[in-house]
Each structure stands twice: as structure tokens, then as C-alpha cells.
User: Fold Sulfoxide reductase heme-binding subunit YedZ from Pontivivens marinum.
Amino acid sequence: MNFLKAVLNHPYTFWAILCLPAVPMAIGLSSGDPNAIHSLLHPTGEFAARFMIIAMMVTPLVVMLKQWRGPRWLMKRRRYLGVAAFGYAALHTALYLIDMGSVAVTGGELSKLYIWTGWLAFLIFVPLAITSTDNWVRRLGRRWKALQQFIYAAAVLTLVHWAALHDWGGIAPALVHFGPLVVLQVLRIQAFRRRRDIRQSTAF
Assistant:
């Protein structure tokens, strides 16, 4: 039992779970299908968004469900989720560059809303991923948390990127993914305000 618990709690096990979506992607890329790269653009982008959303949901869940161990377990692995989100976003970007070729390199599509919002979101991801190691956390100190707040800007840009990609007509999938995050963030803010009001009322 202890061995099984140790295996389940090992970082490599969690990383293996995060890598599972990449397995069929790798199979598709190695299949020789000429349309494989284009067909993987959406899945890679969606998994990048999903892992980002899950990572952002952890803190509100910890606040709202203090008695449940699940959110606290995820909290210890939140940075892994963020790095995984960046990994899929990087793969998404690489596949886009390969698929679009010279059009992407020369910036021929940069004027389109869904393109530049995607690029901005990815550029925000880069420093967040680079500074995700324990060494960077120690070096930056309090500034590390301030830097991580930029993930909210990346989330908004990702939502716009996703919705604009479908000309706003297929916004439902994006809202389904981001909806729970928005709800949890609102509940988190409300809980914070209630605690603040209680502290202020007891101070007098």
C-alpha cells in the first residue's frame, strides 16, 4: 500500500499523466499522414488551454474546499500543470509555424485577431515557464508571485484567440472550458471579501 501511494505521489507519475495526450499526437505525426500537422493544431492548443485552466483553478479550489485533500494535492503539483500547458502551447506554435510555412514566418497573418492574441499569450507563457523552477522561485522571491499574475492576461488572450479562431460563432467550447475557472475566481473573490469584512468587524 505504501509502495502504491509512493508511486502515485511521485512526480514522474504525474508527468506521465500529463504526457498521455501527447501519445496519440506523436503517433499521428509519425503516421506519414500529410494532414497530421494541421489536424493536431487544435488538440495541442486545447490541451495547452486545459492544463492552464486547471492550474489556475487550483488556488480557488483550495480556498473553497479547505477540508478536501484533492486541491491541496494538486497545489503541490500546480507548477507541473503550468509547464505542461507551456509544453503543449510550444508544440501548438511549432506545428502552426510548420503548417503555415512562409506565411507564418513573414507575419502575413499577424493582423488577424486570433493570430496576434495567440502569439501574445505564448510570449507571456515563456517567462512563466522559464521561471517555474525552484531555483528561480528562490531568486525572485516575492517577485515570482507578481510575475505569475501575468497568467491571467494569458488566459484572457487565450480565450479571445480560441473564440476569434472560429469567428466567434463557435465560442461555446471556449466558454465551456473557461466558465468553471471564471465561476471559481468569482467565488474566491467573494470569499476573500467576506473574510475581510469579518476581520474589519471584529477589529472594532
Remarks:
- The two ends are 52 Å apart (CA to CA).
- Residues 172-202 form the longest helix (31 residues).
